[in-house]
């Protein structure tokens, strides 16, 4: 049976085990005077049975599915006659794909050596055997697990403790998955970054002021020496993010204050969801808006007042990105401002403070950590945003702080470096990972600094 | 429509026939519901010759619901008056009318005449900021701002511009803390955050914060309900001292507290002001049957 079919079957078995154990626990309780004389409620006996049924079986299933291919490959390679045995990893994988192609009938066996054909047959049989064996084993374990739990449905056994402990472990695993994924991402990036820095010196990368990642493919190719200086990219990223935050922080914060303190309930109930809708607009759509509406407008306006602006500009991208991140700031700030206890407001108002004094001097300081959290989230969105920048700010890595010029950002460069066919031994491709790593470190630093700042200035109200 | 308006007025009818024991017991059971209050009729001494507050025919609505029903009362200068009554009787609502703290509740509407020193509190041109600067308030749960002790007390003087120099402000803070009996406990840690103090200290800090603006009246909404007996005793002591210079209105659930601190006591029942009298008189020989039931603990 296929793994995909086995999985739901095990789950069905777990449900069956649940109901069987549930009715058994009630049957056990009957002669001794009802459920109250059981150590645990029937639910816990039933849950325990289904956990016993599902978890070991699923673990075995996962292990089997994970190692099956590797083990079979090893056996198949081992079965080859000595003259055909591969001498390198590359050859082995070529040979294996040939074998499996013959086995699946995509390649005619006539053109292959006899040993390979035999290996293909072996592969076929092993696969079939493995499937059968796995099905039997998994189902057996499921049934055994359930029967074990069935025998443990007894008045003196406390199933609740066991179920709660198991659930606790499941929670832990879920939390661990998130953390391990982050670690995994970091490690995968670190490896490639390391390879990049073997070819390009670290200081050239960090302090270089020109970015032009084209590498010469042939010795006589001109104009493609490759320059890997990140300063222009980070300047571009910072320029656009700063413009975006300059738009979003005041707008978002003031709208949050309006919504939470001054707006009537009716206005609030309409305005807040509308504002939050901004966050749901796909960034590509913002990109259209930036490239087709805002950028031309900025260029015309700049020409009108006698400045020159390129048709793609940091200002256009920054403005639209600012609009995009308004809801992060306004919605989160609104929530934390609302969470400041009413007694604080009353205390201030009763002293004769106006609403705005109360806001500035009492509520805002108390809500500061949450507000900073919102701004940080918005800032990381701004730094990581790609689509709007590609469409509205361009790809040219200019080292400039003029918002009317075209600039590019770290994320945009990563995308352009990794789109299309890539050779993973060229610094051009590897530089994408170095950029990603640097971006990760910078964002992390920003977070740490912001946390420190918040700790220093926060006013805790309880 | 309130419950009382629907119920026939039995209190004014004399007993028509001698009751059996059983009937008498039933009557006691039913008393709370049956004793009616005549709207706007308050027994005792609701008026004063020298009123700080002159309140006439005050009604408060929460949407359609009438929470305060036609109350008239004078609060004299430099008196301590306590409002007592069962939960939900409107005493806190009434208190919050005096400094317009109900303004922030959208559906709340106040009608009638409320005068502070003969000037209308609810006049449309009345400056709420000035009004609240003259009427300090202390709340049920201590609510110090999450700032330092110094900044808490200095908050009011700062927003009203009461001090021109830092030294003036220091003086105001010290005096207020002294009056609140807190100076000796906190003088070495004025920069410490106020939320780290004990509940009783926090409440006295809130009193100091209110005094710092030099109000004429101090409203206290169950100021001791979240405090332990020792902290309560300190606050009560403070109220006695403060009564020399301020008019104090205190809402309390503790009848002992009302008896200890106040000159006059007002008994509220379901939005009516049933009886106002000298505190001694209210607790020894109440005139109204409802007051008697309440203070003897028949309901509460």
Structure write-up:
- The complex is a heterodimer of chains A (462) and B (300).
- Chain A folds into 2 domains: 3-157, no CATH class; 227-457, MetI-like (MetI-like fold).
- Helix content of chain A is 75%, strand content 1%.
- Chain A has helices at residues 3-29, 42-79, 89-103, 114-151, 159-199, 202-207, 231-262, 265-280, 283-304, 314-339, 342-350, 355-384, 387-392, 410-418, 427-457; strands spanning 211-212, 227-228.
- Chain A has a two-stranded antiparallel ribbon.
- The longest helix of chain A is centred in the middle third of the chain and has 41 residues, at 159-199.
- The relative contact order of chain A is 0.09.
- In chain B, the strands form 2 sheets. Chain B has a 7-stranded mixed beta sheet with strand order 1-11-10-4-9-8-7, sandwiched between helices. Chain B has a 4-stranded antiparallel beta sheet with strand order 3-2-5-6, covered by helices on one side.
- In chain B, helix 5 runs parallel beside helix 8 (199-211).
- In chain B, a hairpin with a 2-residue loop joins strand 5 and strand 6.
- The model of chain B is unreliable at 1-18 (pLDDT under 50).
- Chain B is globular, with a radius of gyration of 21 Å.
- Chain B contains 12 helices and 11 strands.
- At the A-B interface, helix 11 and helix 12 of A face helix 4, helix 5 and helix 8 of B.
Features:
heterodimer, A: MetI-like fold, 2 domains, two-stranded antiparallel sheet, 75% helix, B: alpha/beta, Rossmann fold, four-stranded antiparallel β-sheet, disordered N terminus
Radius of gyration of chain A: 32 Å
Shape of chain A: flat
Strand order of the largest sheet of chain B: 1-11-10-4-9-8-7
CATH class of the largest domain in chain A: Mainly Alpha
